Each structure stands twice: as structure tokens, then as C-alpha cells.
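Duplicate of #3305? Posting structure anyway:
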């Protein structure tokens, strides 16, 4: 299939729901595929990783937005994303990132383990109450969304009572992360962005009046003390992005991962019996069905990647989902294998824009999957899951499950729990997932 035709198919509703067969059609043309004038699609793992780390590549700047998205400043959705660190180049990117990086150090994330365990156990308790009579439950609404949103909201200082609103607002806003969106979709995104901006404007004012021990207060105080370090618009934009990025990716990881595990019962049983290997499982789940399927970069100088010369100004779409299934890097990439060696998924990116919350997302998933499998050994699909028609952020809209019989009580905090990160597993003896 011609690369341009494959790209058109990838952007269709069918392609967004199941992009993997289309990735393979593109891969047949090479790891870096010309798809138009100064426009390239990257399917190779080595090539995508190298471009993400290459200082000659950056994200879209204001000049390019003016060229490709005239009027973007009047769009609350585009403006909110564009003024955050997510869409900033040096030196602004490093300046903003350093202000929030302290909240996501390995030490601070490790200190949140007991909180994550407690929240996950409480959510399972609720699933048992509401689904104990065999009534199907939506896993996305019951667990995959409330766990990560609860964690990131606690970090930011968002009251628990306000958390139910964010799922719709974020779902609306993140349309602008898609490779293309219609005017109607952009209008929906603007509505979600406007509601988020209104919410965080009020939160900023509240933290000015009454500071608290949270990340929102810390950023407000930086802005108040030195607006050059963090402008008012940057403060608002980064609070929005921290919230949305803090749960959207993890929500999708939990939903995608559960479906994979339920479809591989031997592997699920091995994880239930050996929760200490959760880290390797989570990395393989990220590789196998990435919650983030693509990102983009533009070159500022001539480069060469994958045997292809890329002139200055080249626009590259890095197909992370395809790179994670590159057979040159992962033998039998279509096979789910949590025991494969050297799993390094690109789902959280690489280089300067590597996801700040990657460690937190991994922790939540490493807690969640063994806990769900242990406490709900009869957990099963109770209908056909419905995919969101999205490509960039891949996940489920609904995921019906039945909790089954044989549920167990939670492990008390402080007891042996599925939180130990011991690296990529060699696999328990005699276990073949």
C-alpha cells in the first residue's frame, strides 16, 4: 500500500480503533517512510528513539502554529496545550519542567506507594459492593479512571469532590492531540478547555488566599515571586496539562492492560502468584498496546535517520505504537511476552520530553494489576469493550467486567504487596505465559 494511502487509512475511524495492521503496511516501506513533501512517518524503534533524543528536533512552535493553525490563539484548547511544557522548546521547556520535576522524583513516587495501594483497595471494595450480585460493571468508570485521577488530584491539591468532572473535560480537550480534528471536534475541545481553565483559575485564586502543601500552591508561589520564571498563562496551562496527562495515559494503560491479561490467562495467573514481577509485566503491556500511539517532531537542521536524509524543516510523525512492535528490536512483537528481555517501550517518549509522570504511571499499574488479579480471581469480561475512536491516546470508552466469585480481602498496608520493582523478570520456574 502506498504510504499516503496507508496514512489516510490510519486516520480513518477503523484505523484509529485498530492501527496495528496499518503500521505493518507502513513498515514494509522502511523504518522512516516519506509520506509527502518534507513529511515522514517513523515506524522503527531505533529511529524513533534517536529522533526523540536528537537536539536538532523540536515540537511545533508559535510560528508553525500560525502557519498551520491560523487563529489558534483564539482556541482555548490549542492555547492551553501550546503554552504548557508539553509544547515548549528550549529554553522555555527546561525552565517550566524544572519547576515541577521535584514532585516526580523516584523518592517522592516511592513514598506514594501506600497511598496508591489504599486507593486501589478501596476501589476494589466498591466494585465488590456494586458487582457482587453478578451485575456487570464498567471497569473504566469503576477503577481505571478513579485510581489515577485520585492520585494526581491529591498531588495537585484538587478536592476529591471535584474529581468526577475531569474525565469528560479531559476527553474533550485531548482531541487537539490527534493528528487531525474537525471544526466540530475542535469546538468540543474548546468547551472542555474553557471549563478546565475556569476551574483552575478558581483553584489558583484559592491557593493564593490559603496556601496548602500541594503542587498547585508551589507553582502559584513561583509565579507570584517571579513571573519571568512562570507566567500566569504558563501557570494555568501547566496545571491543566499536569492534571490531564496525570490520569489519561494511566487510565488507558489500566484498561488496555486488563484486556490483554484477561486474554492471556496463564500470564495473568503467573502475575497473581508472583506479584514481584509486576514491573516487567507493565513494561510489556506498555509495549504491546501503548496508551500513547504517536507524537511528532520537526527538524531544525538537516539530519539522517533510518537511511533517509531529512532536510531542515522536516515534519516527522513518530508512530510509537509501531516502534514498540518493531521486529528488529522485539522478536515476535505481536506476541504478549512479559518475560522477554530488555523491554524498553517508547510509550512515554524519550529525551527531553520524556513523560515526567512515567514513574508514577508505572507504580499505579504495578500496584493495580496484581491487586486486581488477587482480590478478584474471577474477574472476567462481561461484554464487548468499546474503543475510543482516537489514535494518539489509545484506550477504551467502556470496558464491561464481572467481578466473579472468590474475592479476597485487601492486604494491609505494610504487609508484602505487589509493589516491589525488581527489574525485568527472568520468570518463575516452570511458568510459560
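Output from current build:
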Amino acid at each position: 500500500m502506498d504510504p499516503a494511502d496507508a496514512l489516510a487509512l490510519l486516520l480513518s475511524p477503523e484505523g484509529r480503533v485498530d492501527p496495528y495492521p496499518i503500521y505493518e503496511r507502513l513498515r514494509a516501506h522502511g523504518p522512516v517512510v516519506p509520506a509527502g513533501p518534507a513529511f515522514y512517518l517513523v515506524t522503527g524503534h531505533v529511529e524513533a528513539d534517536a529522533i526523540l533524543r536528537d537536539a536538532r528536533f523540536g515540537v511545533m512552535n508559535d510560528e508553525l502554529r500560525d502557519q498551520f493553525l491560523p487563529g489558534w490563539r483564539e482556541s482555548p484548547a490549542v492555547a492551553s496545550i501550546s503554552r504548557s511544557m508539553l509544547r515548549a522548546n528550549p529554553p522555555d521547556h527546561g525552565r517550566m519542567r524544572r519547576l515541577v520535576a521535584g514532585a516526580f522524583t523516584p523518592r517522592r513516587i516511592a513514598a506514594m506507594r501506600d497511598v496508591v495501594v489504599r486507593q486501589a483497595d478501596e476501589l476494589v471494595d466498591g466494585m465488590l459492593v456494586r458487582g457482587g450480585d453478578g451485575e456487570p460493571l464498567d471497569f473504566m468508570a469503576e477503577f481505571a479512571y478513579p485510581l489515577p485521577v485520585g492520585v494526581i488530584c491529591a498531588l495537585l491539591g484538587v478536592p476529591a469532590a471535584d474529581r468526577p468532572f475531569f474525565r469528560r473535560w479531559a476527553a474533550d480537550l485531548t482531541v487537539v492531540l490527534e493528528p487531525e480534528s474537525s471544526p466540530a471536534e475542535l469546538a468540543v475541545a474548546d468547551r472542555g478547555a474553557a471549563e478546565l481553565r475556569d476551574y483552575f483559575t478558581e483553584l489558583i485564586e484559592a491557593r493564593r488566599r490559603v496556601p496548602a502543601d500541594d503542587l498547585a500552591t508551589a507553582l502559584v508561589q513561583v509565579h507570584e515571586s517571579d513571573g519571568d520564571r512562570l507566567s500566569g498563562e504558563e501557570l494555568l496551562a501547566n496545571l491543566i496539562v499536569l492534571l490531564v496527562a496525570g490520569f489519561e495515559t494511566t487510565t488507558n494503560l489500566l484498561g488496555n492492560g486488563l484486556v490483554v491479561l484477561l486474554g492471556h490467562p496463564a500470564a495473568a495467573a503467573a502475575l497473581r502468584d508472583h506479584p514481584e514481577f509486576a514491573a516487567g509485566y507493565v513494561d510489556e503491556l506498555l509495549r504491546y498496546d501503548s496508551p500513547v500511539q504517536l507524537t511528532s517532531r520537526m527538524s531544525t537542521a538537516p539530519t539522517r535517520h533510518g537511511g533517509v536524509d531529512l532536510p531542515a524543516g522536516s515534519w516527522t510523525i513518530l508512530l510509537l505504537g509501531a516502534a514498540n512492535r518493531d521486529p528488529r528490536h522485539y522478536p515476535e512483537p505481536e506476541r504478549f511476552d512479559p518475560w522477554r528481555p530488555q523491554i524498553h517501550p517508547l510509550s512515554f517518549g524519550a529525551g527531553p520530553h520524556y513523560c515526567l509522570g512515567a514513574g508514577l504511571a508505572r507504580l499505579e499499574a504495578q500496584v493495580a494489576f496484581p491487586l486486581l488479579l488477587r482480590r478478584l480471581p474471577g474477574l472476567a469480561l462481561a461484554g464487548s469493550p468499546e474503543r475510543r475512536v482516537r489514535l494518539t491516546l489509545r484506550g477504551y470508552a467502556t470496558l464491561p467486567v464481572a467481578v466473579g466469585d472468590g474475592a479476597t480481602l485487601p492486604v494491609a498496608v505494610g504487609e508484602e504487596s505487589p509493589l516491589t520493582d525488581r527489574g525485568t523478570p527472568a520468570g518463575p520456574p516452570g511458568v510459560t505465559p
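Confirmed duplicate; merging threads. Residues 412-425, 428-433 have pLDDT under 50 and may be disordered. The CA atoms of residues 223 and 230 lie 5 Å apart.
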